Amino acid sequence: xxxxRVRSSLLFRTTTTxxxxxxxxxxSRHINSTPVSCTSKRLFSCQSVDMSEVKKVFTENAMAPxxxxxxAIIAGPQIYVxxxxxxxxxxxxxxxxIGDKTAxxxxxxxxxxxxxxxxxxRVVKVNVFLDDMANFAEMNATYEKYFAxxxxxxxxxxxxxxxxxxxxxxxVAYIGEQNxxxxx
Length: 184
Hints:
By secondary structure, the chain is α+β, with helices and mostly antiparallel strands.
């Protein structure tokens, strides 16, 4: 009999029903598990996720990662762009107003998306992190110049950001179907 178990937003198709007994099921060495992604259609439908379809993105036109992460990951029809801080492609933090720093974050996002074969108009979700909500209005004035298509967004104040910067922006872009050259 076949069962399903949930782990970190993924469903794992298994060959046993005992996987449903644990409130937090984990893949077992003894059970053949296949990751499955689900999309909403009436109840839901599932399709297999091939991890070979997950690709790392790197460009020299944006700041290199400051730690053990990628500038972006392409997974299926989405690009997950890591948080971009106001630093140029050499990694030097820029000076200026919060508007200038927000613009640099957005320019970094544009460069990473270009390397992934997309552009900023494909962004569907943005997360903005500010070290002080007093900077919101100025950040927002610059932000809307880059994201005129108004993707979904969250903006939160945090105690501290990497390298002491006042703003960091991350996003998710939808790339959909691509041609043989990887371009939209």
